[in-house]
Amino acid sequence: MDRNTKLKNILSTFVSAYSKFDNNIIVHSKEVAFLTLSICNALSIDEIKKKDIMVAAYLHDIAASRTNLLDSLKKFDTVEYHAHCIYGYVFFDTFMPCNNFSKYILYHHEPFNSKNIINNIEIPIESNILKIADDISIFKLTDNDITIDKIREFLLSRKDLYNPIYLDIFLSNYGDEILKKLLDKSYLEYLADYGDEILINNTDFVTLVEAMAFVLDFKCEITTMHSQTVSLFSVLLAKEFDLPDIFEIRVGSLLHDIGKLAIPDSILKKPSSLTPEEFEVMKKHVEYTYEILSNLKNEKILKIASNHHEKLNGQGYPKGISDLSFQERLVSVADIFAALTQKRSYKNGYSKEKTIEILRNCANNCEIDTCIVNKVIEKYDYFIDMNFELNETYNNKINLLKEKYNTLSSYNEFINFKINPT
Ligand SMILES: [Fe+2]
Ligand SMILES: [Fe+2]
Ligand SMILES: [Fe+2]
Ligand SMILES: [Fe+2]
Description:
Number of domains: 2
Number of helices: 22
CATH class of the largest domain: Mainly Alpha
CATH topology of the largest domain: Hypothetical protein af1432
Domain HD-GYP: 201-392
Pfam families: HD, HD_5
Helix content: 55-70%
Protein name: HD domain-containing protein
Number of strands: 2
Oligomer: single chain
Distance between the termini: 36 Å
InterPro entries: HD/PDEase_dom (IPR003607), HD_domain (IPR006674), HD_GYP_dom (IPR037522)
Largest sheet: 2 strands, antiparallel
Order of helices and strands: EHHHHHHHHHHHEHHHHHHHHHHH
CATH architecture of the largest domain: Orthogonal Bundle
CATH superfamily of the largest domain: Hypothetical protein af1432
Strand content: under 5%
Bound molecules: fe (ii) ion
Shape: elongated
Structural class: mainly alpha
Organism: Clostridium gallinarum
């Protein structure tokens, strides 16, 4: 079944997810998106290009969690900036090949007329729109008593870094309007009205969601692949049961643990079992998943993802509900199956015998659906083989990403940036 989703819903979901690293990022992304939109409108940039620039504006700092950006957010023109530009570029170039927006991300800190062409990837003139928007937003963060005049003074003191056409917008009466909206926060309403009519199809939607799930998997090397595996098992199960529509299952399973972005590394990566207090913190990931995915405005996906720890006997969390749809039950079994067979920070993957025994016990305790468990047992070897293939593909992608990163970053001599999932 083909449907369209509003692009802005997925972008808000993305921003909400990675803002779990730091709330400054969500404010910053929205401010940059608003300023970018205002510049595009002032210049009557065509809608297709505007859409790409807007996607880049929302996602330009996606690599913030993987670099020193959060620490250096308030410093200008520091070398750390290049690391997250390159990472953001290679991330989308690898996971969403043929996109038109990653080159804007690559050059979003590059001064106007820069000759720093990386690996023959030409600098789009519009990338300087992101630069000026980004600088204004960051400058605003550094001053609690910010005014329009101060922003103008700041821009003029660095005027060689900006395309004069973009700079002039902020020196005009229209610039007054934009900056006023930025400072009194009314820009949020303006931004909320943007892009209601811009839709993306299911295929592009799933590609974006896959990229988003990778951001989570990257957070913790040991759980790298978990979201992808749960999604694979869920989709295979859905096919086994001839479910007519797997779109929601695919998306819900990919994003079921996205709330873990908000869980501290000390708990997420703890090499031993969690204390009861730590477990309470860990359990919160489901509520964060709910919070993040509310932005998608798709009730089915929201329920599939946020009910994955609920049990049929009502003993699950966070709500303790027992009335679960077949799709929700299915993802919950896929999640347990993946968790049992995969390595975790505190355990290795379990054997086939032990995995089956635990699944049977859970079914006998009326925690999970017996019929789905039986299907997992019946197809056990096939599912594991398919997951092995998925791992191979994933590892190839990671290697490609590392290779691309190393090729591009050698132009900028970055040494302290790590890509660690292996
Ligand atoms: Fe940036
Ligand atoms: Fe930024
Ligand atoms: Fe979970
Ligand atoms: Fe999970």
